[in-house]
Design goal:
The complex is a heterotrimer of chains A (about 350), B (about 300) and C (about 350). With about 350 residues, chain A is of the alpha/beta class. Chain A is about 30% helix and about 20% strand. The termini of chain A are far apart. The C terminus of chain A is likely disordered. The radius of gyration of chain C is 30 Å and the shape is extended. The chains are: A alpha/beta (about 350), B mainly alpha (about 300), C mainly alpha (about 350).
Chain lengths: ~350, ~300, ~350
């Protein structure tokens, strides 16, 4: 029915607790094609992690509840599967790398055993075959002596090495989608670059798609083909990396890009900052989630959720400023083509 | 590794020496004279006895000679039980106390841990609440009260088990069960907490993301990591159980070491008290030592010493 | 302008030009935030909502009131003997019966409760505070001081606490004061160890470093900055330490070293009652029951307090149950569907 590898439609996820519910994801749509990297950016608490963990159904349910929406992969709606049904997909079709490599490996089990466990859960192979695959994977991620790493415990490895092991493990079943949840945040900058390189290399060799979550715009620029910017549980702007980086349309994206230091001259000299904090999703705002922090806020923004506007093919933005009836002319403070937002008479 | 063991051994010996020293001078601070206590009218005899046991010498001399005999593992002769050496008493009665403690530990630990694991897995359910209530209720009753009630129910009315004495295995059942109840409650609670603690760790999410079965996640990842910290507490526990429970011993008239502790202090039997305290300290130190070594062998994170 | 395609925006949404005017006062837009609550009042509120906590508080209050008011409520003196009314079973005159010298057990039990409660509370609190001070010194100053204190703790822990208790009771005699001293001297080591751990845990936290940089003295930092963070845990610990002290007193009484008569305590009454267990069950039953009730209520209160301090734990318990229920239901439904499809 759809030509996309993975298509998430109108996904709503809430976390129930005894008092009420936190609406962590409020109507998210995105898709992923084979072999592409989708960057999911936004500040902490905006719902990025919840979204991707819902795709793998890793959030314990309850407290997490999928209120609405579908996650279609290979013609199957994952949102309707139970835990047992999901197990076939976890690790085999999707795999995940977490933020903190220090804590995401079991400290009391040897690396080899942890990796083997996953291989043997999905493939009918012998111990020796599994070991061969694991050693090959460890070499592929650039670990120098896979034989020793194989029989070592996680605590004897450095953070970068552990993240490499995580990548090797995640890719060992040749999944079609790799979900990387801030994989480089906890690492040194020099190691960050190496890890990104390894991920890109493996992606090409295995034709895997990647969903890459980060709040670091610099990192996402190196990785992503397409970008989706999340704020307060919604995707507020999405498009190709070029679109979002060079022709950003949403005031939040401006702020996000403006807060990134750059060596090129296309950023204002002073780094921008976005005052305020994101809204509490326990009781989300009626209108646009960004209204209270937006300097171009209009009456309508407070009361109604902005519709999605497609400003260029595949470049979708949720902002009232793009409504033709909006008369305020706003010059994007950022972006290569610093054009005016169209439709403004008094510009 | 050898260096670590030697260092630990040295510290252990120093600890035992310190315990002996503290105890030696503490006991001499007690007012009174053991022999006058035994026979208040015969002052003459008391003086003779003091001289016989060397208690009339200066304290320093006594201390040095005591340490010398300690080095030969000789605890000396009891002052109140005439003609018996402390070593004799320990050899005769310690096995009984130790048997009671070990039986209780062997019964209580696996049950407690199993209950804790099941409570954590079925968290918030009826079983979990049952365990929590059970552990509160069983720890709310003083052991001698519980023992008395059990004696009445199982001994007097049902006649399943003998009420007291320590003659056959059947005699050991009731005291073992009572002593193990506390162990079960404690282990159940700490195992549950540890299981839930491990359940929050990132590596459990990794395990889930691998697509392996829930049973495997619980057994290989959760239980494995939760059991490790339990081992550290084991040393103290073994030690305190090896010395048994004076109260249980008294309720069931078990001829263990417990009674000697009490009578030796109230009777100012210096050598007996010293001997028992030093013996107990040695057990504690040794148990901790063994457990630390064991932990180093089991937990890969501390393996490189 | 032509290339802009609007999706899902039919223009019949009733918006006027006014809607597209900038908001006059941006500071007026406030996202709703969860009401922030002060910590301790909130803990109290949660505690009062918990039925178990209310029950345990009521139970404790009744027992404490009885212990305080018993001289007024009862016409008898706790040590008044009367051979005329010796060994009476419970009746309206003597609700808990009388003992072998005709003392009213009701009066004695609640006088004993008084003693046991005092020993329990003070005997738990004193070693706790003593250990806290020693542990704080040890943890804060570190180095040699720490090493020496911790060695002393190690050595003292090697000697069974029974020894200290017996020693002190033999020297000082069987009064509540000497029991409390005995408890304090034999029980401070555990609390010193755990408090030291706490101090070490917080020592290098940013807010402590900040206070140090601003020139606050160690005492002030510990009391004003670290203590509030661990007060909750300490309260829970204290709740479970009181039963320990009450039990220790009972155990001492049982081996004959407790409170000396005619003063009495629950432990003494209960262990005396054990001797006549088969003939006068009530002499054993009532004091034992009161001990159990006090300890039970304290444990329940401690648990409830822990839940109130960290409500997440209880919420998680509840959610975990919901989780399993949902899973069971989905499994059942999928099976049903599969059966229907066949």
């Amino acid at each position: 029915m759809s030509e996309h590898l993975l298509e998430v439609k109108n996904l709503h996820v809430s976390f129930r607790n005894v008092v009420g519910e936190v609406k962590a994801v409020r109507g998210v749509d995105f898709y992923l094609d084979r072999g592409e990297t989708l960057g999911l950016v936004g500040e902490s608490g905006c719902g990025k992690s919840v979204t991707v963990q819902t795709v793998m159904r890793l959030n314990p349910e309850p407290p997490a509840v999928i209120k609405q929406g579908s996650i279609v992969y290979d013609g199957v709606d994952l949102a309707k599967l139970d835990d047992k049904g999901m197990r076939k997909y976890r690790g085999k079709e999707f795999s995940m790398i977490f933020q903190d490599a220090m804590t995401s490996l079991n400290p009391t089990t040897r690396i080899g055993k942890q990796m083997k466990e996953m291989l043997r859960a999905h493939r009918d192979i012998s111990d020796a075959e599994a070991k061969k695959i694991i050693l090959r994977m460890l070499t592929m991620v650039g670990l120098p002596n896979p034989e020793t790493i194989y029989s070592r415990f996680p605590h004897t490895l450095s953070g970068g090495q552990r993240q490499r092991v995580m990548i090797a493990m995640a890719m060992s079943c040749e999944p079609s989608i790799l979900i990387a949840d801030e994989p480089t945040t906890a690492l040194d900058v020099t190691i960050q670059a190496q890890i990104l390189e390894v991920m890109n290399k493996l992606k090409k060799e295995m034709n895997t798609s990647i969903i890459f979550i980060t709040h670091n715009m610099g990192v996402v620029a190196r990785m992503a083909d397409r970008l989706a910017v999340m704020y307060a549980g919604q995707i507020i702007e999405s498009g190709t990396a070029q679109d979002v980086f060079y022709r950003p349309k949403h005031p939040y994206t401006w702020g996000l890009l403006g807060s990134m230091p750059s060596l090129k001259g296309d950023v204002p000299e002073r780094l921008m900052s976005i005052p305020g904090t994101p809204p509490d999703l326990f009781d989300p705002p009626r209108g646009c989630g960004f209204a209270s922090r937006c300097e171009h806020c209009m009456n309508v923004c407070v009361n109604r959720v902005p519709p999605e506007t497609e400003v260029a093919p595949g470049h979708r933005v949720r902002c009232w400023l793009l409504d033709p009836r909006c008369k305020t002319a706003v010059k994007p403070p950022i972006g290569r083509d610093s054009e005016l937002i169209p439709g403004k008479e008094d510009a | 590794m050898t260096k670590y063991i030697l260092k630990r051994l040295l510290i252990s010996i120093l600890t035992i020496w310190a315990v002996a020293t503290v105890c030696f001078f503490l006991l001499r601070l007690l007012p009174g004279n053991p022999f006058i206590l035994q026979n208040p009218l015969d002052m003459k005899n008391a003086e003779k006895m003091m001289a016989f046991y060397g208690l009339d010498k200066p304290l320093w001399e006594q201390y040095v000679s005591y340490l010398q005999s300690l080095l030969r593992l000789d605890f000396g002769y009891s002052l109140t039980h005439v003609g018996r050496s402390v070593n004799d008493v320990i050899v005769q009665y310690f096995p009984i106390t130790a048997q009671l403690g070990i039986q209780a530990l062997l019964l209580g630990m696996p049950i407690g841990m199993a209950l804790g694991i099941v409570s954590a897995v079925r968290r918030g359910g009826a079983f979990d609440y049952g365990c929590q209530i059970g552990s509160v209720v069983s720890t709310s009753i003083p052991s001698f009260v519980l023992a008395a009630v059990m004696q009445l129910v199982f001994g007097v009315y049902l006649k399943w088990f003998p009420v007291s004495q320590w003659l056959s295995f059947r005699h050991t059942i009731l005291p073992t069960i009572i002593l193990s109840l506390g162990i079960i409650a404690g282990h159940c609670r700490s195992m549950r907490t540890l299981m839930l603690e491990v359940g929050r760790q990132d590596y459990l999410k990794t395990a889930k993301s691998k697509g392996i079965s829930n049973v495997r996640i619980v057994v290989f990842h959760q239980i494995r990591n939760a059991i490790l910290p339990m081992i550290t507490g084991l040393g103290m526990e073994i030690a305190s159980l090896l010395m048994g429970s004076y109260i249980i011993e008294k309720v069931f008239s078990i001829p263990g070491l417990g009674a000697y502790f009490v009578t030796s202090i109230t009777g100012l039997d210096y050598t007996m008290t010293m001997g028992l305290v030093v013996f107990q300290a040695a057990i504690v130190v040794f148990a901790n030592f063994v457990v630390d070594l064991l932990y180093g062998l089991i937990d890969p994170r501390v393996r490189i010493v | 302008m032509e290339e802009i395609k609007l999706t899902g925006h039919p223009f019949d949404d009733g918006l006027t030009d006014d809607d597209f005017a900038p908001v006059p006062d941006r500071s007026a837009i406030v996202d709703s935030i969860r009401p922030s609550m002060r910590y301790w009042p909130e803990v109290g509120r949660r505690l009062m909502k918990n039925k178990v906590a209310v029950f345990s508080i009521l139970l404790l209050t009744v027992i404490v009131l009885m212990a305080i008011l018993v001289p007024i409520l009862s016409p008898y003196e706790y040590d008044a003997t009367s051979l005329m009314s010796a060994r009476k079973p419970p009746s309206w005159e003597h609700p808990f019966g009388t003992d072998k010298v005709g003392r009213d057990m009701f009066t004695r039990v609640f006088m004993g409760t008084r003693t046991s409660l005092i020993i329990g509370v003070v005997g738990a609190f004193l070693p706790f505070v003593l250990g806290m001070v020693i542990g704080a010194v040890s943890g804060w100053f570190g180095g040699k001081v720490d090493m020496i204190i911790m060695r002393v703790v190690d050595i003292m822990l090697c000697i069974p606490s029974m020894i200290y208790m017996i020693l002190i009771l033999v020297v000082l005699g069987g009064s509540p004061t000497s029991l409390i001293i005995a408890l304090a001297l034999s029980g401070w080591m555990g609390s010193a160890r755990s408090f030291r751990g706490r101090i070490l845990q917080f020592r290098n936290r940013e807010f402590v470093l900040a206070a140090t940089t601003l020139g606050a003295r160690p005492g002030r930092i510990i009391v004003r900055h670290i203590l509030p963070n661990i007060l909750g845990n300490m309260a829970v610990g204290l709740c479970s330490a009181i039963p320990g002290a009450i039990f220790a007193e009972a155990g001492m009484s049982y081996i004959g070293l407790g409170i000396s008569p005619p003063m009495t305590s629950l432990g003494q009454l209960s262990s005396d009652g054990m001797q006549v267990f088969l003939t006068q069950f009530y002499l054993f039953f009532f004091p034992s029951l009161i001990i159990c009730l006090i300890v039970f209520a304290l444990f329940l209160f401690g648990n409830a307090l822990r839940d109130a301090l960290d409500p997440k734990l209880r919420d998680e318990d509840y959610l975990a149950r919901m989780y399993r229920k949902t899973r069971r239901l989905t499994i059942r439904n999928t099976k049903k569907e599969a059966a229907a499809n066949e």
